[in-house]
Amino acid sequence: MEEQQAPVISVKSWMLTIFLLAIPIVNIVLLFVWAFSKSENPTKSNYAKASLIWAAIGIVLYILFFVAFFGAIASNN
């Protein structure tokens, strides 16, 4: 049984993808659409999922830093 492969994404398509991801708000919406759409190329879908995971990690680290920093300032007063 031969496994079906997804088509290769062209450089032009990646250029458009990167351009769209540089636009605020649009990038978040498109990442969710690409990550969870069944009809999207699996390569782009996996990229979108990985980007969302990194964004979530960044948000958690930012919140932890924010709480620790302002908690330290508040405890000094």
Describe this structure as you would to a colleague.
The chain has 77 residues and is mostly helical. The chain has 3 helices and no strands. The chain has helices at residues 11-21, 26-36, 42-76. 3% of the residues are buried. The model has no long low-confidence stretch (mean pLDDT 94).
N- and C-termini, Cα separation: 70 Å
| Share of helical residues | over 70%
Low-confidence spans: pLDDT under 50, at least 5 residues? Answer: none
Q: What fraction of residues sit in β-strands? A: under 5%
What would the average pLDDT be, to the nearest integer?
94
Apparent shape? elongated
Query: Main sheet, how many strands, which sense, barrel?
Result: none
Structural classification = mainly alpha
Beta strands, count: 0
Radius of gyration: 18 Å
Instruction: Count up the helices.
Output: 3
Order of helices and strands: HHH
Topology:
Blueprint (H helix, E strand, L loop, with lengths): L10 H11 L4 H11 L5 H35 L1
Helix pairs in contact: 2-3
How would you briefly describe this protein structure?
The protein has 77 residues and is an all-alpha fold. The protein has 3 helices and no strands.
Keywords, separated by commas or semicolons:
about 80 residues; mainly alpha; 3 helices; elongated
